[in-house]
Known about the structure:
There is one protein chain. This protein is an alpha+beta fold. Helices cover about 65% and strands about 15% of the residues. It has a domain of about 300 residues: Outer membrane efflux proteins (OEP). The protein has a four-stranded antiparallel β-sheet with strand order 2-5-7-8, with no helix packed on it.
Amino acid sequence: MSRVTRARGAALAVLGVLALPAFGDTETLQDAWQRALEYDHALAAAAANAESARASERAARGARWPSLNVNGGFTRFATAPQFQFAAPGFAIKAPIVPGDNLTSGGVQLKLPLYTGGRISAGIGAAHQAAISASRAEQVARSTTRLDIAERCVAVLRAQRFRQTAESMVASLRAHVRDVRNMVERDLVSRSDLLAANVALANAEEQRVRAENGLALAYAAYNRRLGESLDRTPDLVASLPVDPQLPDQPLESLLRRARESRSELSALTAHADALALQAKAERAELLPQIALTGEYSYFDNVILDRRDFSSVGIGLTWNLFDGGQARNRSAALRSASRAARRQADDLRTQIELQVREAWLNVREARARVAASSDAVAQAEENLRVTRELYGAGLGTNTQVLDAVALYVSAANNRDNAALDESLALLGLARAVGAL
Length: 434
């Protein structure tokens, strides 16, 4: 078995220790993600924005269909208007509406025939905006998952720190008992007992701080999930991430990130939407032609009928608007260019994130390999030092140093294993696989 394989096995063993039962129900990272997705307000807002964009796209597509308008009215005159005609020798005077009331109504059907590309550009812009909002929702989802995973690892780190602190307290208590017995038999000086008691007090302080840190880590984790802050679930340290991801060539990971990162596609779609909006604004300067059909009702007594039907083609052409449409189009084109520049900058940031996460995984794995051997050696050093002290061949200071060395090595091993987990999660997020 190779040294790297043994190191990875030791790291997995550390994670297994971290998953020892605590108070409460067992909870995996997938469970935590599901809870957060139901509670997270930022994600809910992103989902609402995506639904809003999809509704806007449906509204833009509706502009191609005929519009049907119905109107009606009832008017009561103080003095009803009359038809009046006068000529030499006679005069005609007759009412226009029966009585003092006027009733009217109508139905109009309008179908756009030519808009200069305004409707098509508007539909395209709404479609790209919907794509951008959908990608933004995916970004919010990935960000939430990474944040929850980091808080989960923070809880596991705090648990391990508490376990190490408790182990240090137990070890020093045993050493204090040994020193007290040796002092009572006049084998060592009383200063050894005082030094051991001071070290024990310091270890107790670290244990209290570890307990408080674990409570705070749980509270932060539960708040992110919308749960009670004093909940203490048993977190299972299994990561839903491909462990072979860092073994892929860096160029392959960079290419995957450029193709998969939702932030990049969201920004590109936003730039396309702005460009199409600029085209739609420019189309306002072109002729607008529509087919209309209308039915009207006019309650009167002077005309030969009360209802009328008509069909026609109407043309509207805004020849001068003070440059409003032209300048709105120019502003949108500039905004589109700015979004594309931001996309170019984001692409380089993504490449840096992938490279940094990839290197972090390699560093953490190297630390795991080194620290796993250091723990075994520190443990053996502590055993030998205690035996030497009990035989009168070692000093109290050497024992205390051996305890501190073992605690430091154990913390380094645990931190390396958890840092590898965080680096794996960061790499998965960087390539768009989270």
